[in-house]
Amino acid sequence: MPTGHENEGYRRLFETDGLTFGAGFPLTGTNRSTPDPEAEIRLAKRAEAVGFDGLWARDVPTYWPKFGDAGQTFDPWPWLSHVAAHTDGIALGTSSIVLPLRHPIHVAKSAATVDRLSDGRLVLGVASGDRDPEYPAFGVDRDERGALFREHVETLRTLWRDEFPEREGRWGRLDGALDVVPKPTAETIPLLPTGNARQSREWIAERGDGWLFYHLPERTLTGYLDDWREAAGEKPFAMAIRAELADDPTADPEQLHLGYRAGTEWFQDYFGRLAELGVDHVIVSIENDDPERGIERFAAAIIDAD
Prior knowledge:
InterPro entries: Diverse_substr_monoxygenases, Lucif-like_OxRdtase_Rv2161c, Luciferase-like_dom, Luciferase-like_sf, Luciferase-type_oxidoreductase. GO terms for molecular function: monooxygenase activity; oxidoreductase activity, acting on paired donors, with incorporation or reduction of molecular oxygen. Pfam families: Bac_luciferase. The protein has helices spanning 8-14, 37-49, 76-85, 104-117, 134-137, 145-161, 201-207, 218-232, 264-277, 291-303; strands at 20-24, 54-57, 91-98, 122-127, 166-169, 172-175, 191-193, 211-213, 237-245, 254-256, 259-262, 281-287. With 306 residues, it is of the alpha/beta class. The protein has a single domain (8-303), classed as Luciferase-like domain (TIM Barrel, Alpha-Beta Barrel), CATH 3.20.20.30. Strands 1, 2, 3, 4, 7, 8, 9, 10, 11 and 12 form a 10-stranded mixed β-sheet that branches. Strands 5-6 form a two-stranded antiparallel sheet.
């Protein structure tokens, strides 16, 4: 059973008491055009300073306006290397690498490079993808994405673990004459399948180092967590949520797409309930006209109050 416990990023996120919090790029909120790198790094450093445990970059190879955004627009591998050079101990995550669209040798090498450059802080959310036009753009049959996802997960584990590996798949063949270097700081980089990734719950529980999911209503989330604990035991569960802090700390919640707008008092209770349900980590997309103030308000009201 794969474990990521030797990875520093995984330990930072999951081997602590209580719920931990990460912030998702772009921290400036600029997700349809190229964000200012200096502003993003300044906010990343501020997030680490005020108590966030993770910084998460998305993998959005192409911009599809119909879908609504392009993530942080920068490719996750050089971007997280840049972030690593400007931060100290905060975990660095992907949410999530679209495995069927990327060659597993490239993923293995790029991920291990970031892992080494960050002293073992990388945690990989991995996904099967959800932007339909990208599959023909990359010459991938979208109906094969579930099978490709499984194949690539197993291939990544092999390439990180074995020297001069022998493995064959739809991506190509290694016959033991070539090695893929560098190797990561631990035997494996932790892999968190994202959403269902077109896999069974049992497969995710057995093959993953945890499960990363999207925001769910609490009643639905309770059922998911019960099933997850039955299948995966103590492996961690992480989720993403949009959060907009109202000026009035007592404001009641308003539903947003994949999140809420509410006062800090409601959010304190909400995240307390998530912790009681068994959520281990939350990736927060903080909605605020002043991003730095939003990060600081969230940390003071939610993280420090935990």
